[in-house]
């Protein structure tokens, strides 16, 4: 994939000083200040000191990609919806009728939809990007979810999408997903990576009842026992337990970090993709901003595992990238105050930082 460079902190002190000297008490804008510093650090990579000092940092042509894939585990009835709904929702995305379409239109995200491998191939006129690895993963309770070839092709597809198909002027990437059964896959991956028992990672997904949740728990426990010693690396975990959409999302995150883009991580499924990307390339973490804490019970544990503080907590559990899409105005506000808020000296206000 190519090595992901660690963020160069050359301008970190200047950025922090500029934030601290704005006309406000020290730290008064809270997490917005932390966010502004991270964004400016990312966006200033490769600049000379002269370029940095006169730069105005803004988000340009933000890209949101929804990856869709079907899962073999869904045949066991681990969701309130059958697998056919994946394809139906992909058509809904393409036709502009889903929540993610509404939010992308509202905030001027550039939205792309990718068929990573679903049961029903979308009609060509829908404009869905075809990166199919098959029609569905295998059921991970009795076999690996995908082959070595599918794994490597999926990572390559995600990389190529970011490098070749998305606008190279974009400096912010976000990734959503659609796939009936993918909360089961994400919970299994999280348990495999963290060592947490499935009882701590398995949630209700689309809103299943107690019986279905108990079935999910049993199947994921079975899968972890079945694969056992074969889960020694992040690639192994992804191949044995992952989804086609999760695989391509990992490849896209790795590519985005390698290109030093800011990566806005959505909910439960996207965060497990982020975990895998970080396991493969630890420096990816520097480029990631975590959008929200979802209503899925394992997500807060994922965020704690990554020592990540999300921007929002709205009890969202829809996926699609909806939480990430909603965060764009917050990122823009962080940069707006950094760029435009007066310093104490500029405003001729007594400096409350140093008094």
Automatic annotation (TrEMBL):
<keyword id="KW-0328">Glycosyltransferase</keyword>
<dbReference type="InterPro" id="IPR017846">
    <property type="entry name" value="Nict_dMeBzImd_PRibTrfase_bact"/>
</dbReference>
<keyword id="KW-0169">Cobalamin biosynthesis</keyword>
<comment type="function">
    <text>Catalyzes the synthesis of alpha-ribazole-5'-phosphate from nicotinate mononucleotide (NAMN) and 5,6-dimethylbenzimidazole (DMB).</text>
</comment>
<keyword id="KW-0808">Transferase</keyword>
<dbReference type="InterPro" id="IPR023195">
    <property type="entry name" value="Nict_dMeBzImd_PRibTrfase_N"/>
</dbReference>
<protein>
    <recommendedName>
        <fullName>Nicotinate-nucleotide--dimethylbenzimidazole phosphoribosyltransferase</fullName>
        <ecNumber>2.4.2.21</ecNumber>
    </recommendedName>
</protein>
<dbReference type="Pfam" id="PF02277">
    <property type="entry name" value="DBI_PRT"/>
</dbReference>
<dbReference type="GO" id="GO:0008939">
    <property type="term" value="F:nicotinate-nucleotide-dimethylbenzimidazole phosphoribosyltransferase activity"/>
</dbReference>
<dbReference type="InterPro" id="IPR036087">
    <property type="entry name" value="Nict_dMeBzImd_PRibTrfase_sf"/>
</dbReference>
<comment type="similarity">
    <text>Belongs to the CobT family.</text>
</comment>
<feature type="active site" description="Proton acceptor">
    <location>
        <position position="320"/>
    </location>
</feature>
<dbReference type="InterPro" id="IPR003200">
    <property type="entry name" value="Nict_dMeBzImd_PRibTrfase"/>
</dbReference>
<comment type="pathway">
    <text>Nucleoside biosynthesis; alpha-ribazole biosynthesis; alpha-ribazole from 5,6-dimethylbenzimidazole: step 1/2.</text>
</comment>
<dbReference type="GO" id="GO:0009236">
    <property type="term" value="P:cobalamin biosynthetic process"/>
</dbReference>
């Amino acid at each position: 994939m190519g090595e992901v460079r660690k963020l160069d902190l050359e301008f970190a002190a200047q950025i922090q000083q500029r934030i601290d000297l704005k006309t406000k008490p020290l730290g008064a804008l809270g997490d917005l200040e932390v966010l502004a510093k991270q964004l400016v650090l990312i966006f200033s990579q490769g600049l000379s000191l002269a370029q940095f000092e006169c730069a105005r940092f803004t988000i340009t042509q933000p890209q949101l990609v929804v990856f869709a894939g079907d899962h073999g585990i869904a045949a066991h009835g681990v969701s309130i919806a059958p697998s056919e709904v994946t394809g139906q929702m992909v058509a809904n995305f393409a036709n502009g009728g889903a929540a993610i379409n509404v939010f992308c239109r509202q905030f001027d995200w550039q939205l792309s939809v990718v068929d990573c491998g679903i049961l029903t191939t979308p009609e060509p006129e829908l404009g869905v990007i075809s990166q199919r690895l098959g029609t569905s993963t295998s059921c991970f309770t009795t076999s690996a979810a995908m082959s070595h070839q599918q794994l490597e092709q999926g990572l390559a597809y995600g990389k190529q999408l970011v490098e070749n198909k998305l606008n190279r002027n974009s400096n912010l990437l976000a990734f959503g997903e659609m796939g009936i059964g993918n909360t089961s896959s994400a919970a299994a991956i999280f348990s495999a990576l963290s060592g947490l028992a499935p009882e701590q990672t398995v949630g209700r997904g689309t809103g299943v009842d107690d019986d279905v949740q108990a079935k999910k728990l049993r199947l994921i426990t079975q899968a972890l026992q079945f694969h056992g010693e074969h889960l020694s690396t992040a690639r192994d975990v992804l191949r044995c337990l992952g989804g086609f959409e999760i695989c391509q999302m990992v490849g896209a995150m790795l590519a985005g970090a390698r290109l030093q883009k800011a990566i806005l991580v959505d909910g439960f499924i996207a965060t497990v993709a982020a975990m895998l990307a970080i396991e493969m390339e630890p420096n990816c973490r520097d480029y990631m901003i975590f959008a929200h804490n979802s209503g899925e019970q394992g997500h807060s544990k994922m965020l704690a595992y990554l020592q990540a503080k999300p921007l929002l907590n709205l009890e969202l559990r829809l996926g699609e990238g909806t939480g990430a899409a909603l965060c764009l105005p917050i990122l823009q506000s962080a940069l707006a105050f950094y760029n435009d808020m007066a310093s104490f000296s500029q405003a001729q206000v007594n400096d409350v930082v140093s008094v």
